[in-house]
Amino acid sequence: MATPPKRRALDAPGEKVLRYEAFISDVLQRDLQKVLDHRDKVYEQLSKYLQLRNVIERLQEAKHSELYMQVDLGCNFFVDTVVSDTSRIYVALGYGFFLELTLAEALKFIDRKSNLLTELSDSLTKDSMNIKAHIHMLLETLKSLHAFLSHTALHFPPHPYCLLRYPVSKAPSYQEAQRSR
């Protein structure tokens, strides 16, 4: 049985360019999109908690024993309802769990939860900036490599953005690419 030929220590410069462009388009840009989508979901959660805080503060200011309101049952189908005791509220803790809290306890919970969500969004923003920096660094490297190769009379695509060869959904993630090394 014949042994497969050994891989060359150095790929041709054109192959390196293609590999870097594929890494940018297939891995880094997809990971950046995932981080930004996750951050958007965190911002949505934070917005809901801040809206809840505003409602609770208005309830505390009004000091009504009963509250008349309309509740959305889904698909814009509203029902009139009466809340007989406005001193307590059910708050979604996460993972489908709800807890009955007083208005003061709910405000404390919302403050803690909003602080955690803010920290998470800041962390995701830093991650996205890190990925963007990697993309920028690789694009600058490719730009220099293209300039070098153009001086050596080799012809390659003139711009690093031009080779988005694979659909993003089929490309390996950044972590998968790191594990395969």
From TrEMBL:
GO terms for cellular component: cytoplasm; mediator complex. GO terms for molecular function: transcription corepressor activity. InterPro entries: Prefoldin, Prefoldin_subunit_alpha, UXT. GO terms for biological process: negative regulation of transcription by RNA polymerase II; positive regulation of transcription by RNA polymerase II. Coiled coil: none annotated. It comes from the Eukaryota. Belongs to the UXT family. This is Protein UXT. It comes from Cnephaeus nilssonii. The lineage of its organism: Eukaryota, Metazoa, Chordata, Craniata, Vertebrata.
